[in-house]
Each structure stands twice: as structure tokens, then as C-alpha cells.
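Supplementary Methods S3. Input chains for the assembly prediction are listed below.
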Amino acid sequence: MNSHGGAPSRGKPATLRQVAELAGVSTATASKALNGRQQVSATTRQRVLDAADRLSFTPNSLAQAMLHGSSGTVGLLTHDLEGRFSIPILMGAEDAFGAGQTSVFLCDSREDAIRERHHIRALLGRRVDGLIVVGSQTNPRRSLGHDLPVPVVYVYAPSSDERDTSVIADNVAAGRLAVQHLVGIGRRRIAHIAGDPTYAAARDREAGIGAALADAGLTQVGPSRSGSWSEAWGRTGAHAVLEAGEPVDAIVCDSDQIARGALDLLRDRGVRVPGDIAVISFDNWGPFATGSRPQLTSIDFNFQQMGRRAAELIFAALAGEPAAGTQAIAPRLVIRGSTTVGA
Amino acid sequence: MNSHGGAPSRGKPATLRQVAELAGVSTATASKALNGRQQVSATTRQRVLDAADRLSFTPNSLAQAMLHGSSGTVGLLTHDLEGRFSIPILMGAEDAFGAGQTSVFLCDSREDAIRERHHIRALLGRRVDGLIVVGSQTNPRRSLGHDLPVPVVYVYAPSSDERDTSVIADNVAAGRLAVQHLVGIGRRRIAHIAGDPTYAAARDREAGIGAALADAGLTQVGPSRSGSWSEAWGRTGAHAVLEAGEPVDAIVCDSDQIARGALDLLRDRGVRVPGDIAVISFDNWGPFATGSRPQLTSIDFNFQQMGRRAAELIFAALAGEPAAGTQAIAPRLVIRGSTTVGA
DNA sequence: CTGTTAGCGCTTTCAG
DNA sequence: CTGAAAGCGCTAACAG
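Predicted C-alpha cells for the full assembly:
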């Protein structure tokens, strides 16, 4: 359509042979010249480089992969791109790989086992060097099995099979961290609005909260109130906490969204945050955590780091150092206005 | 590490030759059998299929690609995976491709031109059949040029070069749609809290709003108030609208986040929504739009459809039917409680 | 119906 | 220092 100059706008890209011909050498020499091998004279090398440049030569990685035996490619299998978990994880992985020579194939299986199989076949056909499987829940997921020809790392949702390699968020530590912060700023009467109790995340956070309270010699105010992960539940839960009548000076919410709902209700009731009640939550989901008034102190699970770690584990396995078992990534406290006036 | 049975846990995957040997035929016959060619006897075919199965044979797409000349692969270049725009677009594209035999390479250039070049080189090296470039702003972006050997489609952020192919959101239509809905439910005194005025999105929406108001014989209440895309600005903007003193019965907010802020302030002031003032916004960002009280009526830009369209355009270009120019995808009204009591 | 041959683009011995 | 030849895994002619 719009051909001009030396660079071909369409049509097949230049091949090494064409470069070699233009430079007046053999393909072998051209290859050496382009790959920085020492067995080429300076002038020849320059001639080859010029030719390559003139033809906008880009080596065909497919051909290289066939020889070398590995494609420099990794498959990323996710279940919900919508989710705020998958994306940072994906970024971390892409980052860790992208620095090197590895490219990432993205596949979304939409929670569908059939589609998942289909994608895995396609990825193996493309001879990916490894597979990263990202779940959207913390609940363990079915293993892909051990007969795959490439290393597999499960992220966020661990594999239910201990022999697999998994990277997860440390929800217990997160629960502890939240309570420790509240205790650190002098709160003693701490309530908990939990998420959906069918999620391991909710149960683990509860365990962490309980442990940290015990460490501090405190007792939780009221039971952990379970619901869903929504703002609406945050309102309902906060309402229940206030209605219970027991004095409270802090609330741990299982997600930023729940905290938003709680904040909402507390303001309606004229409760000051953090003056009367401090609020802390989990996820540190940017727009939610920073859009509220006051902004939310939140526990960040370092998803991006989880993605990076997954990439590293793939590399390690490729290098012959597999690391079976589950690794937990430490969470991080991000302090904002819902727990401290200064911040 | 954990080898057993017939399927190799590691080591090179089985090749066609191995399958052929196991089945006692030539590679050519094996190839025909596996690819459903008619020139093979039923018994032979079955023998080959069995052998392939026993070796968990997966054809090497790289080799196939080298022959066929195309890799069945597309590059997706994005600038912000965080963004709520890129993800649905990406899903739409992955969907449209995934149905067929195409896999998607994901690359995030982090707004960095160097990194972008690097990624493009890598993708071209892998012989992608096409490139989809997703921007995070509606503002036009620099073209990648016309000397690339594969078709390129720009999404969300169009190319500044008219000769390129772009798919964008129709912000003018969105502005109209918002006003038409408000007028349809009987509102006459409409104000506008705009986003960041350096964004084409904000300017286009304003144009659409103005046009629809004119069509209805109405005049906007007060100026379009420009700010940022945040909840904080939504509060400030709503405050300004109320302070201006002119009666208002509806506010168009340039994003769901702005609308959340506005809702927040209106409630503080005892203004009922939608009773006293209806609120409508753009983006229809799930958790934000449905988490508020009342839920937000919002204009959805059909990002997923944009992604699909981009994929289709790549296919079309590959089939020799390029479509230069910019295509706008029609937005869609999603009605919720912030404009109607019934919904 | 089946097998032989050639070759996709590249790298790597191994001679010259 | 350079080139000829072999081969990665697969498919598409062509013979047989």
C-alpha cells in the first residue's frame, strides 16, 4: 500500500540470507558478525551490519528457538483480568521477564476448564518455557498435574497439590500487621468486619487478627462479622458494630471496599474517623483507598512482587533448581488518614 | 524430577518423527494423519493417533509457523495495565483472537519510548502477525510509522497520523447520550463537572453535552467546571455547583470517580439523589458505579467491543483489506439509581 | 495410500 | 578469517 525507500512496508521481512548476499558473504559469516562472534574481521562485520540495517533485518526468533530448543516465551494463564489482583501480578511478571529476552503470552480462561485446556495446549504448542497460573481467589485450585513438559508456578491461588510451586499473599501476616498498627497508635477496642467467609483470605486474616490481639493481651470487640466483599456489606457491618452497643475505637475491614462502606455509614452517624474510630483495611486498591475522606490506611499485598517472584521461580526451575511448596509474600502497611491525623 | 509412565515430565517434548517411528510410518504420513488429510487409510490414521497420544505429542507451532510463514501471534502493546481502560480492551482482543488460533503477546511499555522500541523489536522478531497499541488517554499518540512489516491498530488513544488505523471511544456521542437521558427523565437544569481539560475525552464530552442541550433547546447551568479525574475534585466541583446558587436538577460528571465525590458532598448537604438532583457519569467502572448509594447511572464505552474491533481490523488487514482512519465505538447507557427511583 | 525429497531461517561444527 | 553442510520440526509437492 505504502511502499517506499529501502525498508519494506509489507511483504516478508528480510532474511539472513538476503543480508549475507547484500554484504557479499555467506550466511554463516553474517550470522557470526551479527551475533558478535570474534571470528570475523572488523571490515566484514561492518559491511554485514550495514546491510542488516539497510534491510531493517530482524532475526527470526522462531528459527532461533527451533535450534536453541527454547522459545524465550512464557505463558500467563489468568482467570479474571477484571480482577485487581491479576493485573499487578501480571505486571510484576512481565517486568521480571521483560528485562531479559522473555516475552509473555497472555491467556484468560474465564474460569472455564475447557478453555483452560485449550489455552494450555496452544501454549505448549508454542513451546513456552514455563507457565504462570494466576487465580482470582486465595482458595487453592486444582493442580494442572505433573506431566507438563515445563515448569508451572501458581500465583495468588495456590495449587492444592503440595508438590507444585505456589506464591501466595500472606493473609495471616496481613491480619497481624493491621492489628499491630492499631495497637501501636493506642487503640484497644478493636472490631472486625470480615469478607466472604468461604474465602481462605477471610479466614486467614481473621486468624492473624486473633493472634495479634492475643499477643497484645486484648480481646476482639464482638465477633468477626462475615458478609461479602462489597461496600454495601461495609455499611451493614458497621451498622451492626455500632448497634451492638459495645464501645469501639477501631475497625478492621477485610477490603478497601468494605472500608469505604463502613466510612460512609460512620459519617452518616456522626462518628469521626479516626478521632472516634480508626479504620484500616486490606488490598490498598489505589482509587478506592485514596478517594475516600479520610483516605484509607491499608495493607498492601505486594502483588507486583508476587508476580516477580513467580518469574524468578520459573527461571530457577529452568536452571534446574525447582522449589516445590508454597511461598508467602510479606504484606506492607500503607498509612493514611483513616488511622492517623498527621498522615 | 518426577518422571513416570509414558508421558515425559520434562525433557524435550515428542517430535513428529518419534510419533511416526512408534507408529511405523513416515513423518509425511504421520503429518497427514494428524492433520486430517484424506489420503490416509483409517487403520494407519488410528495407529498414528494412538502413537501421538501415547507420547502426548503436541505439534511444534514454531516449526509450523516457519513453513506457513505466519506465526498465529499478535502483539498487544499497552501503556498502563493499571488502567481500567486497557484491561477490558485487552480482554476483548484476547477474546476475538482466542476463539481462533491466535495467541497474544502482552507488553507494557510504561509510557517509555525506549521500552516501547525494545518491545516492538522483540515482537517483530517473534514474527507477530499484527500489533495492537492500547493507550491510556484519549489524546492522540505518535504513530509507530508506516515502515512496520505488519498491520498496526491503535486503540483508545488514536494515532495522530490519519493514515493509521484507530479505534476510539465516541466521547461526543457519550456526552449527548448523558444529556438525552437526563432530558428524557424530565430534567431541565443541567450542570457539568468536567475532568482534566487537557484530555481530549473531557473536551469531546463537553461538546456532546453542549450539542444535546442545544438540541433540546436548553442552556447549561453554569460553566463546565474543569478539574481532575478524582473523587476529591468531584466534591469540590459539586460544592461549586451548589454555591453558585442557580437551581440545578441534574449534574453530569466526567467520570464515575468524580460522581462518587459529588454524591458524597450532596449527601453531606442533605441534597437527595435523584430526588433533588440526578447524577450521571461516564466509564461505568463496576465497583465504583455499583458501590455507591444510590448506584450510578453511567455511560459505558464498550471497551471490550473496542478490543474485539481492533482484532477484527487486524484480521481484515491481514486478509488484504486495510481500513485506514479512525473508527468510533458507540457508547451505551446503563441506568441505575442515581437518575431513576425505579431502577 | 505411502514414502522420499526439499526447504522454511537460522546457528554451528568443521574444513578450507 | 570465511564458507559449505547439516539439521532443528514440520509440511507440501511429487513419486512410487
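Residues 15-17, 27-28, 31-32, 35, 59-60, 62-64, 66-68 of chain B lie near DNA strand D (CB under 10 Å from a C1'). The radius of gyration of chain B is 27 Å.
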